[in-house]
User: Fold these one by one.
Assistant:
Number 1:
Amino acid sequence: MARVGILTGGGDCPGLNAVIRAVTRTAINNSWEVVGIKNGWRGLIDKDTMPLTLASISGILPKGGTILGTSRTNPYKDESDLQKARHNFKELKIDALIVIGGEDTLGVANKLSEEGFPIVGIPKTIDNDLNATDFTFGFDTAVNIATEAIDRLHTTAESHHRIIVVEVMGRHAGWIATYSGLAGGADVILIPEIPIEIDKVCEVINRRHNRGKTFSIIVVAEGAKLKELKEEVTQDKEKDAFGHVKLGGIGQVLGKVIEEKTGYETRVTVLGHVQRGGSPTAFDRILGTRYGVRGMQLVMEKKFGKMVSLRGNKIVAVELKEAVAELKTVDKEIFEIAETFFG
Ligand code: F6P
């Protein structure tokens, strides 16, 4: 019987279980066996696996997280890990591996694929910054959570005549900030793509006050940088296996400066991992399911080195190397629409 392996790597994301379920159902319907590799690339290095059957995927569609577990392991960081990963790929006797991940996990998938391993990628990240696809699953859920938070913060900001700074996720790209800010009616949106000019932010707040608005909502992506500093605000200087620092804190920095410069009382809310946890939206369940079914079809068609992608309303196959070549930053057109409502 043909065997397919599947792993989930990087930060978790609502909709991962929908993909795992869709791959497994499609595989079993076509008489393939499915091997779940636990905790991302760590499971391939350690040969830590579990069988995926109809019983094991039953009821997982609405569940957040990933039943396989995840990690930010980078096998290319350590030569002995890489040897083990290559060795176990063969030992597991899998005919193909489906890798669900973002830029880092799929970056590893692309390298292994270039070495000749049969791999198909599925795009995942709440940040929506993966190239070669219109949307990654998980993004819609994160945007909905952030939008609900902004709605709630609006009422308290208005009652107390305060400025509220909401820090959302988005390491290199401000997709969550832009979409949730647009949906939630933010008065200013600050993203990593555009350095923050603090005087301009205060100008917008003052303009609102001058026309009688005594509150403002500022949405900031965690990766946004102050123009003067040119660097992100980080929690510490430690880097993960892919060289990323732990972001967080720009909201507090901004809140303090805004209060000092405008004289208006300011509060800061950091949404953090709340945006990544819990049940996926219907959109993400459907997108994850479509990606999973098509991903397994690509395996059966032996179309390796590809990634499934959403283009318009169609699921297509693109080159994995195209997906990891560069990051997809926020579309100018959508940001300009959001800007219409600043101030
Ligand atoms: O890559 C997705 C993401 O949620 C980023 O927005 C964020 O910077 C990062 O992961 C947080 O990673 P961790 O869960 O390891 O703290």
Note: The chain has a mean pLDDT of 97.
Number 2:
Amino acid sequence: MSVLRLVLGDQLTRGVAALTDLDPARDVVLMAEVTGEAVYVRHHKQKIAFIFSAMRHFAEDLRAEGVQVRYVKLDDPDNAGSLKGEVARAVAAVGATRVVATMCGEWRLHHDMLGWEAALGVPVEIREDDRFFASRDRFALWAQGRRELRMEFFYREMRRATGFLMDGDQPRGGRWNFDAENRKPLAGGLDLPQRERAPIDAITREVLDLVGQRFADHFGSLEDFDWAVTRDGALAALDDFITQALPRFGDYQDAMAADAPFVFHAVISPYLNAGLLTPHEVCRRAQQEFDAKRAPLNAVEGFIRQILGWREYVRGIYWLKMPDYAETNALQAKRPLPWFYWTGETEMRCLSQVIGMTHRHAYSHHIQRLMVTGNFALIAGIAPREVEEWYLIVYADAYEWVELPNTHGLSLYADGGLMASKPYASGGAYIDRMSDFCCGCAYEVKKKSGPRACPFNYLYWAFLIRNAGKLRGNPRLAMPYRTIDRWDDVRQQGILMEAEAFLDGLAYQA
Ligand code: DLZ
């Protein structure tokens, strides 16, 4: 009567639902590195290495506890290449009479798993993933009957439900949101925290060699790999953030700078999303810093909002709206992804910086993602599917439940405003205000048109002119449309032509 318990690469939490009633004497835990998961999109090399190494360490921890683990490495000659194939092999090998799994984080795999019971001939129990504050049902209940699904209102409900930063039923400091204080550019002379590099042990070394050989043609470099791959390592990274960066996280959370990928950000999203940290402990830790007066409210509230609010909200939207959500394309964006997204080779310094840092670290912080790579894709009219695949590939923290709503809804407005009250489109001025990227750029951010004008400027106006039929009625865009209305047709056509000529001049393949 052996039970086979499946743990996926982003379910590395000892308390994950599939393991709660584990009987070490009877049950076998299955973990499998499979080509199918590594290449359904061609993930960044560091993402694959992080997941494989963290999986191997998690398996070692279970074994140290006396748990029987069937761990299938990628280079095992009998590896079936898919999760379904590995579950089938394991059921036969251990004589399992039942399979227990935790619900996965991507629609495509979830859909596949729903067919496993029929294919395997044994019962397959798929348990709700309860590592989140809000279950899928709870989110659906909140969403029911609402005309607009705005994060801010969901977040307030989660604050009330959990008691984080609350005085009774009122928010600490008298406000729910301190975002207005969190928009400072970096000041000169400010020392950025030095992120601790996690050590590379023999397990990680073996994985890095494997990934370097097997996925040599995937995006990204392994050279700077320094992700923690154990729970202890992830806790140390959390501690490092809390003590070194949290107090200034709020002030500078939107700031960007050349060769500064992390600024004051936590850089714990890969650990949270793979299960090495839980959102509950992370929020508790931040709240303790506020209670002990070691971090200000704007920093702690901003941080907790990202996790208790935004992260839970995007997961809720994903499961509420998929699979149709991914098919929407409200702005009819059709252009292919420019090739520089893969090489970083562009004269636009902000893009080459952000893509370069992504190549080196499999990471960018939220404003680099939203206002540089995302903003460009939005105003250039790149097809949502191509942009979404890029985001899913290049970031170590990206699984579709979190990547898709962030890219599709927030960045690209492809859902027509379900998530965002206006498109996050901007010209070069925003990037100039929040970063030093424009210094030394081949383009001039102050120029609106002409050969050396910053392309973000005319692309921004062309985006608004092109989409006027869909966006003009949005009250948050009233100001830029008033400006456009002062321009005659010749001027508007000139902007559209300049934008088209620039975009047509880009390379779209190697
Ligand atoms: C992302 C990923 C990769 C690269 N490889 C594996 C793997 O070999 N085995 C595994 O169990 N999980 C892997 N993952 C994570 C899965 O893709 C993830 O569980 C699903 O996408 C659902 O979120």
Note: The first strand starts at residue 2 and ends at 6.
